[in-house]
Design goal:
The protein is an alpha+beta fold and about 220 residues long. It is built from seven helices and five strands. Strands 1-2-3-5-4 form a five-stranded mixed barrel. The longest helix is centred in the last third of the chain and has 18 residues, at about 190-205. It is elongated and about 55 Å long. The termini are far apart.
Amino acid sequence: MSGYEIGLNGIILSSQPVGEFDRRLVILTGERGKIACFAKGARRPTSRLTGSTRVFAFGVFYVYEGRNSYNLHRADIKNYFEGIVKDYDATVYACYFAEIADYYGFEGLEAKEPVNLLYGAFKALEDERLNRRTTAAVYAIRAVADAGECPAVEGLHLPAKCLDEDVMKTFSYILTAPVERLFKFTVGDSTTEALEMIADRVERYAIDKKLRSKEMLP
């Protein structure tokens, strides 16, 4: 085990019980990519790690590096995303985003942009003014594009309604907009439906596994 503490900025993608009192976390971090991290004693009622090991928590995680995993020592959580965890539909969407982030996350591969993208998507889920279906399509398209796997429109074999000028302008915006502005636009129902179809085609082209959480989307 490393003899010094490392601070990593990230978001917990999953948090699973291990043994009687511990938790195994998967954290997407800006500095080290996707890491497996054990939080010993986190399930004890008196543990200071109990709140810091909740899924979707965003902050700085202070860890010690082991041979095959990391061990969580403490955490400074900046956002628990209470608005997500208290809302079933929002939680399902967040699980879907986290599953995509997990697919594209690798240990040792810097992931500052994916962390920022996921954080922005989570913030959008808490904004009642935004359509979550649109947010989901935007996140899926941009996550695949940022991984360098988004095909040209011609390769998606889209129906005519998805090739509408407004839809194509929105698609181009999704691919290029700064993350801080990416989720803040609104569109009509027909454009949302077109974006959902594009996102589905992009996922099928790029992701070679079944996204279990997608089947649960509202």
